[in-house]
Amino acid sequence: MIDHYDWAGGREAMLRFGPATGPVVVAALPLFEEANRTRAFVVTILRHLAERGIVGVLPDLPGQGESLVPTAEIRLANLRAAYAAAARAAGAPAFGLALRSGALLDGGAVLAGRWHFAPQSGPELLRELGRIRQAGGAEDFGGNLLSADFLTELDNAAVEPGYTVRVDRDPKDADFRVDAAPLWRRAEPDNDAALAALLADDIAAWMRTCGA
């Protein structure tokens, strides 16, 4: 179902899955091109959660999806404010589900817990954007115009602590590891239904430990 939420910067669209009431998972896609590569995968996770009686929502944040906000105008503070507004609109108790740089966006929200898959810090994202810009030989970042203020925000942005899942080849600390290829590294958008089901099981089990 297509829903919406309001925040200080206007109104944005929000997909909603599952029952009308109950614990809610609010998803945050990675920023920029990785969002396109992983959107179908995150939607599949939310559909699996819906089959388990868990409400799932996927908000468009400023500069994402159908949002009319140009990327040149986005600020990390506004992305966080919009995510927090989406979490309030989704209902309570709300749990965060974030993939990659999406984990930078849930810090301002009131959540019962944060579940992060391969979280990416602000400096890590900034270095990746620099590589994309250098490879493209242009003033933008893979087609995205970004302000100096936003880049400065990224340089100081950290991920809030949460339950962390990583692919097995990632040496960083994790609460759970999966044998999977990183979809965000593929050249084109893709999906992994088996991995989505596995992660939905993990999210549901984790939510129970949080009291859901």
Features:
212 residues; alpha/beta; eight-stranded mixed beta sheet; 5 helices; 35% helix
SSE layout:
Elements: E1 2-7, E2 10-17, E3 24-28, H1 33-51, E4 55-59, H2 76-90, E5 94-99, E6 114-117, H3 122-136, H4 148-155, E7 163-167, E8 176-178, H5 193-209
Parallel strand pairs: 3-4, 3-5, 5-6, 6-7, 7-8
Antiparallel strand pairs: 1-2, 2-4
Helix pairs in contact: 1-5, 3-4
Task: Describe the structure in your own words.
Helix content is 35%, strand content 20%. By secondary structure, it is α/β, with parallel strands linked by helices. It has an eight-stranded mixed β-sheet with strand order 1-2-4-3-5-6-7-8. A hairpin with a 2-residue loop joins strand 1 (2-7) and strand 2 (10-17). Helix 1 crosses helix 5 (193-209) and helix 3 (122-136) crosses helix 4. The longest helix has 19 residues, at 33-51.
Quick gist of this model?
With 212 residues, the chain is an alpha/beta fold. It is built from 5 helices and 8 strands; from the N terminus they run βββαβαββααββα.
Unreliable residue runs: none
Major β-sheet annotation: 8 strands, mixed
Strand content: 15-25%
- Helical content (DSSP H or I, runs of 4+): 25-40%
Q: Based on DSSP secondary structure assignment, what is the total number of beta strands?
A: 8
Radius of gyration: 16 Å
How many helix segments? Answer: 5
Structural class: alpha/beta
Shape: globular
- H/E order of the elements? EEEHEHEEHHEEH
Distance between the termini: 23 Å
Question: Average pLDDT value?
Answer: 92
Strand order of the biggest β-sheet: 1-2-4-3-5-6-7-8
